[in-house]
Amino acid sequence: MSEAAVPNRLSIFPLPGAILFPRMHLPLHIFEPRYRALVTDALARDRRIGMIQPRAAGDAPPLFDIGCVGKITDVEALDDGRFNIVLEGLARFRVVRELDVTTLFRQVEAELLPAGEAEVLSLGERASLEAESRRFADAQGYAVDWEGVNRLDDETLVNGIAQIAPFDPASKQALIEAHTLSERVELIVQLMAFFSRHDDDDTGTLQ
User: 195 with 167: CB under 8 angstroms?
Assistant: First the structure.
């Protein structure tokens, strides 16, 4: 069995609309008691938290199968017990089973998926993504530093868009489950076009 396939015990933070990719960063404000306990526990151990989306609302809803392990790289402990943290993505994971635990936060047995090397897009894929991103940003009224965007490498651009774009949780899940960067780009372009078309008549599923 490869190292990536060895089951890992992960404490998880189920949060709809929040996804993380390897080599990317995710800032989080932690205020609920169970997740303050999660962060405290992680800081005392290996600083790892499994970010994953729930499939539904509720106190302990079922989980999607794929998430991403993040390592706490920055932490600000506030006087009232809340935290501001930044997670750095390490590897995606697949849930094997949820564990029966007594902690306030949920834990799973998970199989880590190989992160692989950074991928590169074709010139056509990059151009298509940038063009659709400009149309989408203009339609949503976003102010974007396009010169800064042009300097980003392909992986950072694609996965950064996937993390911050205001798509619904199911769409976000499809993005994190995409096998290649090219597949993720194709899906992002389709989602941007779809949500732009449906934004005016409020039939889309934006968060």
Answer: yes
